[in-house]
Every structure is written in structure tokens, then in C-alpha cells.
Design a protein that fits this description.
Five copies of one chain form a homopentamer. Chain A contains eight helices and seven strands, in the order E-E-E-H-H-E-E-E-E-H-H-H-H-H-H. Chain A has helices spanning 69-79, 83-90, 147-155, 165-198, 206-236, 244-309, 318-321, 325-346; strands at 27-33, 38-43, 58-64, 97-101, 104-114, 121-130, 134-139. Chain A has a seven-stranded mixed beta sheet with strand order 2-1-3-7-6-5-4, sandwiched between helices. In chain A, a hairpin with a 2-residue loop joins strand 4 and strand 5 (104-114). In chain A, helix 4 (165-198) packs antiparallel against helix 5 (206-236), helix 4 (165-198) runs parallel beside helix 6 (244-309) and helix 6 (244-309) packs antiparallel against helix 8 (325-346). The two termini of chain A are 60 Å apart. At the A-E interface, helix 2, helix 5, helix 6, helix 7 and helix 8 of A face helix 3, helix 4 and helix 6 of E.
Chain lengths: 350, 350, 350, 350, 350
Amino acid sequence: MKKASETVGLPPGTPVHVGKRRAERVRITVIDYDEARVEEKEVKSVEECFPFRDKPSVTWINVDGLHDLEVMEKIGTHFGLHPLVLEGIVNTEQRPKMEDFTNCIFVVLKMLYIEEENDEVAVEQVSLILGSNFVISFQEREGDVFEHIRERIRTAKGRIRKTGSDYLAYCLVDAIVDNYFLVLEKLSDKVELLEDELLPNPKPETLPAIQRLKRSLISLRRSVWPLREVVNSVERGDSALIKKATRLYLRDVYDHTIQVIDTIEALRDTVAGILDIYLSSMSNKMNEVMKVLTLVATIFIPLTFIAGIYGMNFKYMPELEWRFGYAVVWIVIGVVVVSMLFHFKRKKWL
Amino acid sequence: MKKASETVGLPPGTPVHVGKRRAERVRITVIDYDEARVEEKEVKSVEECFPFRDKPSVTWINVDGLHDLEVMEKIGTHFGLHPLVLEGIVNTEQRPKMEDFTNCIFVVLKMLYIEEENDEVAVEQVSLILGSNFVISFQEREGDVFEHIRERIRTAKGRIRKTGSDYLAYCLVDAIVDNYFLVLEKLSDKVELLEDELLPNPKPETLPAIQRLKRSLISLRRSVWPLREVVNSVERGDSALIKKATRLYLRDVYDHTIQVIDTIEALRDTVAGILDIYLSSMSNKMNEVMKVLTLVATIFIPLTFIAGIYGMNFKYMPELEWRFGYAVVWIVIGVVVVSMLFHFKRKKWL
Amino acid sequence: MKKASETVGLPPGTPVHVGKRRAERVRITVIDYDEARVEEKEVKSVEECFPFRDKPSVTWINVDGLHDLEVMEKIGTHFGLHPLVLEGIVNTEQRPKMEDFTNCIFVVLKMLYIEEENDEVAVEQVSLILGSNFVISFQEREGDVFEHIRERIRTAKGRIRKTGSDYLAYCLVDAIVDNYFLVLEKLSDKVELLEDELLPNPKPETLPAIQRLKRSLISLRRSVWPLREVVNSVERGDSALIKKATRLYLRDVYDHTIQVIDTIEALRDTVAGILDIYLSSMSNKMNEVMKVLTLVATIFIPLTFIAGIYGMNFKYMPELEWRFGYAVVWIVIGVVVVSMLFHFKRKKWL
Amino acid sequence: MKKASETVGLPPGTPVHVGKRRAERVRITVIDYDEARVEEKEVKSVEECFPFRDKPSVTWINVDGLHDLEVMEKIGTHFGLHPLVLEGIVNTEQRPKMEDFTNCIFVVLKMLYIEEENDEVAVEQVSLILGSNFVISFQEREGDVFEHIRERIRTAKGRIRKTGSDYLAYCLVDAIVDNYFLVLEKLSDKVELLEDELLPNPKPETLPAIQRLKRSLISLRRSVWPLREVVNSVERGDSALIKKATRLYLRDVYDHTIQVIDTIEALRDTVAGILDIYLSSMSNKMNEVMKVLTLVATIFIPLTFIAGIYGMNFKYMPELEWRFGYAVVWIVIGVVVVSMLFHFKRKKWL
Amino acid sequence: MKKASETVGLPPGTPVHVGKRRAERVRITVIDYDEARVEEKEVKSVEECFPFRDKPSVTWINVDGLHDLEVMEKIGTHFGLHPLVLEGIVNTEQRPKMEDFTNCIFVVLKMLYIEEENDEVAVEQVSLILGSNFVISFQEREGDVFEHIRERIRTAKGRIRKTGSDYLAYCLVDAIVDNYFLVLEKLSDKVELLEDELLPNPKPETLPAIQRLKRSLISLRRSVWPLREVVNSVERGDSALIKKATRLYLRDVYDHTIQVIDTIEALRDTVAGILDIYLSSMSNKMNEVMKVLTLVATIFIPLTFIAGIYGMNFKYMPELEWRFGYAVVWIVIGVVVVSMLFHFKRKKWL
């Protein structure tokens, strides 16, 4: 895994792959469509997708795997991307952002997964380049949330085949935001599970689980929060690349983003509440232990004292000679116990 | 119950009913009125209410039940609603929002109830479409807070019959916001009850009750907070659909919304205060138990030691032979007890 | 006492008295003045004050008691008040606000008192209507903070007789804000008292006192905070009813409001600090009890063990036969006690 | 000491001295200078400084002591000050503010001292009136932070003699802000001292010291925070009284103010950290006491039980007759102690 | 080390070196370049670098060591710097800021290091003067993060030799911001280390380590937070000194700054989480000790009472005479122990 620090000292605009290498090889697929036809193929070499740039039809080039800088630079040169855009695509530790270069719009997003093996939220960076008649998407590895969109293009379902590249770009962003709802639902289920198993029987092991959940939510928040600003500035921006009809849809994505943030905040509140209940339960449990045990001790300590008195070996202890001395001691003990219990009961300590 | 995640992968603008299905069947009622006359009827099929669109009189179409997408789409087509509006109406997990489509204004609101059975705050989504001479309202189920308004239309009470569709829409929003005061009063009563039963005698069961109340208030806040922005943008907006006279009334609704938020915040402060008192009371109670019990133990432990000394079996223990040894021991014990009690008293530990 | 919920379902602009009824009967006084003369009288029926509307002199109509809706509506009709203004005057649970109707300005304020009987902050709503040559003030009951102003009008002290109705309205607002300083000083005294009696000797009863104070400050804050916005929007507003010279004075009131808010925040900080010290003192006191008592227990438990050993009845226990066995035990006990005390001392537990 | 409440009921613009009377008598000094000459004198009566108003040279009138309202009113009348300005000067409980009256600028500031006797932060109000060719400064008592400036005027050091009254006013503000650094350094030293004596050996007495420091910082913050806005609005304002060259310097003062605020926030963070460490240390110390003492008790209680068993007086107790019974008991005791210590060691409780 | 307070009383614009003196002597190096050639030299006296001002090529003058005010003033005079700029350069306790003097832009930044010896974050102030064809950088001591840039100039790598002084200034800022990532990675490693060694085995020594880390992050935040504003105002500013192409790069630095702030906030959250876990672990550990020990005590105290009873010396105690009295006692003891253990087990206290 490469760290951001490895880029230190390089000239600005030098693309360096930062982050885990998640794909074996770079895989490039092209979908080219207009209202009449669709063409879909996986290209062997990057040069194969260059001719599409000058066709009037909408072209979606998807690149899985960011580590091959040579391929990146070829794309950059051919499609006229600024060096900083290339640097941004391959540095996977960026925050979501949007940059308007008159000839294209550059958007960085975060795609989220719940990893099956360890139940944590994994983050994958997705970059989009929106040109007048093409969209280029860059992903860290194969497998994405865009399969529905490909299917819609193939089957001409919805409006996608009748509209331009800006609507395609919107669909990609929308798919990523929609996916957040899936992730949030899974996290929400985990919160509920925690609540159901915690409230009846709190254990010390629950604390790390709560903290893990809290951290997942914070990392989620960090991915989603700047997205709000990104979608807003695309919608409000004056770029000629975004048509008016598409802006309405972007407004809708914006509302979804706000809703995601709302849900995250609500989950955070719930987790904070769980934490409070957990801490309070632990302390109640401890208090209960201490109370019962101390009660036992308190009752028996005075009794032991009484027994100790008549265990003394003084020569002249009249009680020891009495016929019913022993019985009297038991009676005294009984009285002490009963009056103590009565006192505790009245004070509601029992 | 359908979740937001079920909409993932569908083309944007596809209406999918998200949320619980709360109504058996879709029920459509129409009220058509002008200053002179009122017509009110329940329609069997959705097509029956289409002719009203082109009448000059004000028409209020109310739809209870959102699950029948066919009906929805017919309404959408006839009244020229954007696909995203339809999607928004049937997705009941949205936050309150307002969207201005030049020919109509689309508003999403939350209607709140205190559910009788479990005393929790239930949320129902209400969507309003305001056109130049009609208002369409969509609710999740029958039963609403609009009965007063229907009565006023029938009896021509107030100004409602003399004004246009914008005033009707205002009345609907106003009724929803007014209803919040009812909900808040019930919550406020619960807070007071909690305060009255908590302060004299705190129990561990009170904590979950406090947390439930806290959560109700947070969910309330989430429903009301965005409403402020919604009402404000309708009032400040430049839509030709809202007449100037109506804006004054919207300003009033805005003030009510702020007041609702204020009251929620005040209740949250109060609940936070109750929580503090609860935690402090629990800890005081525990401290009191520990203190009294430990005092008892402390007094008797040294005494037991004294008794233990004269329980030893040494051959040469002069005290044991003394005539008044036993009496002296009792005197010593008395002195120890009295001086300890005196010391504790002076230190205010008793 | 009537609640806000009783207005639910009524047509907007229907005046309903919300809040406690604090006055027996409605009492209306009129002061009419210009530079040359003053006329002051209490009117029997509301119609008596109507002629003043059309006089060029400045008229101040003061209404004590809001429950008589008939009187209210007469005033509203004669002075051309919007129905929402009337509704706002009689609903005493509003937050401070300012509404500019071109022909008049409507201001809602909160007058604060410290109630003698229970030392709590009481809130009374005061509404002002500022017209071109009149001011109407509405109060919940007789008795107010305006007596000084009446005196100044009668004696022509200050500039009040030479200026218009806007200056009179300013004076009323100023009197209300000035009165906040009195309330704050009383609260401040209570905080100091709490501090002086708390720090030397914390008791469990102090917690509710602190909480009560905290709540007073929160309620105060809620009354004063929106006032800031109110005064600011009157001063910054472009209403022709407020002359430029008066705006300077309003600026001054604005500064006072900020100062009141500052003082409230400072008091809240102080109360929070007192709470921290209280909690810490309570816990220190408990710790001290526990420590001393446990020390006592710890010293005597090993000693009791030693005594227990030589209380055993084994046939063959050589020490029991020794001449100085008993003395040796006492020496051992002494050594144990001294070394323990020494150890505790070194560890600073004593 | 007079309180703000004493001004209640007076006509607006009535000057009333609020705050402690800190000076015996009002002392007025005048410095009049241009590039060529300086004239400095203490005037007996306030009228002596009036002629300077109409001279083209820059005049600095300094007034120490605010209680003589007659003097104040004479100055006000002669220099054309608004009644509210006079009221503001003598009310020493104001927050820092700036008011632009076209013919002059009125600025209220707070001068801070660390009082030698009780180590607390004392606040003195300083008001400045900046006119086209004069500056009037009002202070509560003699002794200030302006001596350096007087010296610079006398010796013509720096640019002060070549510039106008706005630069002089800037110098005064700058001197006050610079002085904050001195106060902050002293507070910073106290924080460090607290840190050095607290960490090795926390005592209950440290808590009030921390709270006092916290309160000093809060009061400091309250004096400095509004200053930021004041300096900014003077710099950004469009008053003709401030020349462009001076604005650059005001920008510098603004930066200093921000830096002061930053330092205060940093100190507050540090104090909060100290408080956390203190509370944690106190609790650790208590825990340590409890732990060691409870360990002792736990070891000896079972041992005492064993001894108690063989102290019983049953006729038929075979062990008592054994030759080595006593020795066996000691061995058992040894085994119990060692195994307990081993167990505690393994659990890291020792 | 000189403190800010030493500048008190000096005329504004008097340069005074504030902060530690970190360099032995002032060292000045000059790099002068255009597309065709590079000239690099260390100058003996400051006058040697003056001729470069009027050359068309780009000149970078780097000054290490700020204590020699004479050198500073010579540079100031020759390059036409405002006195406040000079004062700002030598006062090393400033916050990052940017000042636009039409002929030059003055930027103050903080360069951060992790000090090897004590693992703390050290802050060094770097000031930049950007003129039309020169950049002057001032550092507190030799050794910086600019070596890569010098190398790029020498080898004409990247675009640096083809661009103007604004691009050079950008490169310097970029290098400083890039270096923050290095510092953050080291801090991040320390946080992880803390997490790995803390969770399995919390010790009281961990608290100061956590607090130190917290403080490092706060100090970092204070250095980076204002930088955001600085970079933004340079980028958004309308200075003719910054070319449009360079603004794009500045936008990139801005994004990096936001990312640094994000990472700092994330680390702060993590440290706060560690603190919570630490406190909870400490309290759990203590609770566990208390619980086990108290359980032991509770079991043995009643048993000791039983033994005490039969250690009494009453003449008439029938049980003592019984043949199996002693055995019965052991059976009773066994029953008590087993039933207690069973009870504790059922209550989950074991």
C-alpha cells in the first residue's frame, strides 16, 4: 500500500498511485450509444478507445485499476486532461470534490461497501470525467454499483439512451448515492442488533463493538459530507456541459445526499444513546453487587462481635455461668438481624 | 414494509412505494368550491377527478394510500407532474422539502401523531401539489388533521371560500404545523410526569424512559427542522402561484415553526436536566448505602479485635484473672464507640 | 389556563386568548401629548379612545388584560390591524418577533419579573403596535415597567414630548430591556449566594437549587435571544415609521440586548462551574469517608487474625505456654500498626 | 459601586456612572503636537482644553476618572458628542463596541491587568473619541499602558508626529491589544505552574485553582472576542476619519486580536486537559487506596476464619488433639496466602 | 527565547525577533533562473543579492535565521517592504496569514517537524514575499522541505523553469503542505501504537501519552486551520502577481489543506475514542478487583460468625457436647458456601 507521503517532493501534476493496489490488471470497457444503437466492448489496449472521442454518440469509458500510470497518461493526453486531474485520479486518499475545467468536469466520489469478512465499511474512490459527449469513470477494482445502468443502456429502459453524457454522469453519481442507503441499512441493522443484545445483558465486550460502529459512522460521514457540496456545486454551477433538464435530477441527488447525512446523524445519536445506556447499566450492575454484598457483611460483623465477646476467657464473666446465657445470645442475634433487615427495607436498600 | 434500498438500480423517476403500507385501498376525495358553491364527493376511479383541472373553481383532491402506482401515474400524467415528483410522493422516507416547478409547487411534509398503543411519536408523510387552481394532497392512510378545513369550506367560515388554491395549500400546511403543538403538549406532559415521579424516588427503570423521550424529541426535531427552510423558501420564493396576501399567512406559519423548534429545544434541555438529576440521585443513593454500612463495619471491627484479644488462650494473661477485667472491657468498648460516633458526627459523616 | 392546542382547527387569524388569565378586567388608559400639552385618562369603553387616531398629537393607548376578545376586535377594526396581528397579541406563548405592515409595525416582547413568592422568573407578554402617530401597548395584567416613561411624559423630562410615536415605542422597548438588568442582578445575587454556601459545605439539596437556576437562565435566554433579532430588524428595516434619529437609539438598545445575552452566558458558565465543583466535592467527601473507614478496617483485620490464632484450642501450641507470649503478641500488634501507619503516611493516604 | 440597574427609568442618553469609582478626582491631560512641536500639560479645569478643538495640530485629551458627570457633559457639549456616547463612556459595564457618528468615531475597549494582590484579571474600560484632529480617551483611573506612546510623541520616535489623529487612535488601540499579550503570558505561566505542581501530586485544593483560572480565561475571552469585530469594522468601515495608510496598521491590530483569541483558546484547551488529568489522578489515587486495602482485607478474612474454626470449643474435634495440628494450620495459612498473592499477581492486581 | 511581550511599547513596524533563536548566523542563498540557465550561490553579504531585483529572470532568495535585524532592514528597504511586513517576518509567534500589498504578496506559514528527541511536533515559521520576478523566503534555521524544489530548478524537471515567480511561490507552499502529510502519518502511527498497546493492557501511564497526542493534534490544527483561509484568499484574490494557470494549482493546494484538516479531525476523533476506552477499561479493571475481593469477603464473614458462635465459652451450650457437632458445623459451612456460590452464579456476578 502506497501512502500520500510518497508523493512528497515530486513536481505538482506528477501522477503517483496512492492507496492499496486492488486490481491485478487494468481493465478498460467501452460502451458507445445513441438512441438507435449500442456498442459495448472490452478493449485490449487503451488506444482502441480513442476514436470514440470524436464520434457524436455518447461514449462511456470505464477503467478498473489505477496503478498503470502509462495508461493513465495516454488517456490524459488524448482527452486533454490537466496534469492535476490525472494526479487526482490515481491518488485514492482524496476527499470528494468537483473541479470545472471548461472542456470537462472532474468529479471525485467515494463508493462504499460493507466488507463481508470483517463487517467494516470499505471505501473505494471513483473518479468521473464528464466531457461534451463522453464520460470516463475510474475505479480501483472491478465490481461496482453501475451494473443496473449498463443494463438500462443495453435495453434502452428509461430515458438514458435519449439523453446526453451529462445524464449518464448523473446516473453514475445517483447509483453511488443510492448505494449509500444499502450500506446505511446494514449499519442500521447492526445498531438494532446491538441494542437488542445489549439492553438485556450488557458485557464489557460490547464497548469495543459500540466504538467500532461509532468509527464506521464517522468514516461514512467523512465520505458523504463533502459530497453534498460537490453535488450542489455541479447543480448550481454554470457549466455548459450540464443541461437544464439534468439539473433537476441533480437536485434530486442532492436531496438524497442530505437524507443520507440525516440518517448518519440519527444513527450517531442512537449509538451515543446506546453508549450511555451501556455505561449506566455497567455501573448499576456493579452497584447492585456492591450493595448486596456489603449488606451481608454489615449484618454479620456485629454478630461476630457478639460471639467474640463470649469467646473471651475472663475468669469472672457472669453471663457465661447463666443457665440460658447461650439462648439469650441467639435471641439477641435474632433481634439484631430482624431490626437491621427492617431498617434496610424501610430505606429501600433491599 | 418496503425499504429505500429497494429502489436501488431503478431508472431515476421510477415511482416505488417506500415505507409501510398503511391503507387497505386508495381512497380519493374531491372538494371543488368557489365563493358561491361547494361540491364534495368520493370518486371511484381516478379519472373522475380529471375534469376539475380545467374548471376555474378551486379543486382539492385528497389521496389516501400511496401504494397503487397505477393511480399515481395517471394523476401524474394528467396534471403534468415531473417523474421525480411522483417518485418523491410514494417514497415516504424523505425529509420535508419544497420544489418549485414553474407550473406547480411540490411540498413534502411530515404529519405527527402520538400513537395510543405505545405512546411513541408516529410520522406520516403528506405531499402537496399546488397548481394554479388546484391542490392535490397525498397521505399514507385515512384520518388526518384536515377535517377542520373541510368543515370551514363546507360552511364558508373564514376567508377560505373567497380565496384561491394558494390559501388552501397554506391552510393545509398550517393545520399540520398546528398539530405539532398538540404532539408537543403530550410530550411535555410526559416530561412533567417523569419529573414528578423521578425526583422523589429514582429507579433504574427510569433511564430507558428518559432515553425513549429523548429519542422521540430527536425524531420530532428531524421532522420539524427542515420544515423551517421549506416554509421560508415558499414564502420568500418568487413563484406566481403564491399571492402576496397569502405570503403574510405563510410568514405566520414560519413563526409557528420556529416556536415549535424552540419548544423542542426547551424540552430537550429539560430532559437533559432530568437525566443529570437521575444519574446524580442514583449515585447519591448508592453513596448513602455505602456510607452507613461502612460506618457500621468500622465501628465493630476494632471491637471484635478487642474481644479477640481476650479470647486468646495464653497461660499468662494477667487481665483475665482480674476481678473486673470483663467490666473494664465493656467500658473500653463503650468509650471506643462513643468517641468514634463523636468523631463521625463532627466530620458530618452521620 | 388556555393552551396553544386550543387554537387548533380554527380559521387563521381567529383571535384566541392563549395563556393564563392574569387580569380581572380589561383596563384601558390613554395618554395623548404633544410638545405643548398632555392629556391622560382611563377610558370606560374602548370606543372612547378611537378619536385619538386622527389627532396629530402622539397617543399612547395601553391595554391591561387580553382576555376580552370583543375589545380586541374593536381596536383591530378601528386601527386597521391585520387579523394575524390580533391573533398574535392574545396568544401569549409566542416568541419575541417584529412584523412590518406598511401602515404599522407590530412587535412582541417579553417582560420579565422575579416572582417574590417562589423566586422564579415569570414571563409576561407585551405587544406593541406602532402607527404614524400612535402606539398601542397590550399587557397581560396591570403593573409594568413603564411608570418612569409616564412620569417623563407628564413632566416633559428628556426629549420624549418633543419627538414622535417612534421615540415613544423605543422608550417602551428600552424600559423592558433595562428591566432585564434588574432581573439578571437578582439572579446573579442568587448565584453568588449559592457559591458562598456551597463551596464550604455541599449538600444534596444544592443540586435541585443549581438545576432551578440553570432552568431560569435557559428560560431567560429564550426570551432575550430572539429580541436581538427583533431590535436589529427594526433598526435596519426601511420602515418610514422609524425616523433616523430614533434608529441611533435603537442601536443602543441593540447593544444592551447583546450585553444582556453576554451576562446570561456568563452566568450560565458560572452555574456550570458551580455544578462541577458540587459534583467533585460530593465525590471527594465520599472518597474521604471511604478512605478513613477502610484504613481503620485494614489495620484491625490483620490484628484480629493474630488474636484469632492464639484463640485456637490446639493441645500443642508452644507459644501459649511461654511466659511472655502474651506480651510478645502485643509487641507484634504494635509493630504491625506502626509499620502500616508509616506505610500509609508515606503513600500520602493519611 | 454602582450597578447597571441604577440607570433603569432614566431618560435615554442620561449619563450615569456605572461601576466602581476608581479615581479620587478627575485628571485631564492634554498633548498637542504636529511635526514641528509638542505641547503637554495637565489642565485644572475642563474648559482649558476646549481651544485645542479648532487648532489644526493633533490633540490628545486624556481623562482619568469618570465619576464627575458635569465635566463629562461639558466635554460632550463642546465636542458635539451624542448623548448616547456620553452615557456609554460613563457606563463601565459595556462590551467593546464601535459606533460611527459621521463627525467622530466612538470606540469602547477593555484594558486588562493582572492584579498583584489576588492574582486575578482586572478589567478597566477605556473609551476613545476620534475626531478629525483630536482624540479623547477616557479611563477609569490613572495609570495606563499608553506611557510608551506619550514618550514617542515627546521624542518624535517612529511616525507618530508626522501622522494624524487616526494614527494616534490606532496607537492607543494597539497598546491595549499588545498589553493583552502580557496578561496572557502571566496566565500562561500560572497554567504551567499548575501543570508542574499538579501532575506529580494532585490535591483537592487544586480544583478551585483550576476553576479560577478557567474563569479568568472566560472573562478574558469576553473582553477580547467583541474587540475583533470592533477593529474589523473600523478597518473595513468607510469613515473619512481613517486614512488608507492607517487601515494597513489596523489590519495588523486585527491579526493581533485573532492571535490573542487563539492563545486564549489554546490556554482553555490546556486548562481543560489539566482538569481531566486532575480528575483522573484523584480517581486513580482513590482506586489505588481501595485496591491495596481491599487486598489486605481479602487475604486476612479467610485466615481469620481458619483460626476461628479451631477456636471452637467442641468436645470432639480430632484436629485439636493432633501433635502437629497447630503446625499444619500455619502451613495451610501459608499456602492460602501464597496462592492468593500468586493469583493477584497473575491478574495484575498487585 | 524572546517573548511577544518584549515588543510592547515599541512603535508599530519596529522589527523585533520574537521566539527562539535557532540559527547561529544568517545564511542567504540565491537561485536565479530562467528557461535557459540557472545560477545558484550563497552570498556573504546581503547587498550581493540586490542586483537580482532588476533582472527579468526569476530570483529566489532564501534567508535562514531571523535574528539579525540589520540584514532584515536592508532587505526591507531594497525590496520596498512595508515596516509591518518586516515586523511580521521576525515575530515567529504569528498565525498563518496572507497580506496583499499591491507590489508584493506577504505570506506567513508554519513548517512542521516531528522532533526526533522527544517525539513532539515542532513548529517553524516560514515567511514568503512574492514579487513580480522574485520570491524571498525567510526561515528560522537551516534545513527545510524545499530541497526537492531546488533540485527541480537545477535539473529543469517539471514546469518550474518555464514559469514565473508565482509558480515558484506555489511550489514552496505546496512543499510545506505536502510535508504535513508526513507529520500526520507519523502521528497516525503513534495513535495506532497507542491503540495496540492500550486495549490489551491499560496502564495509568497511558493517560499522559494520550493527552500529549491530543495536544500535538491541537497544536497542529492551530497551524493548519488558518492556512486554509490563506491559500483560499491567495487563489480567489485579484492580485496581478498570480497568473491564472497558477490559480488552478493553488486550488489543488487548497484541497490538500482541507484533506490535512480532515485527517487531523479524524485523528482527534480516534484519540477521543481511545480516551473513552481507556477510562472505561480502568474502571472495569477496578470493578473486577472490587467484585472478586468483595465476593471472597462476603463468603467468609458469615462463616467466621458461625465459628465465632462455637468459640463462645458458655457453660451450657448443648451443641458443644454433641458427638458430631464439629462435623455438622463443617456441613453447615459447606451448604452456606455452595448456596452462596450458586446465588452469585445465577446473578452472573461470577
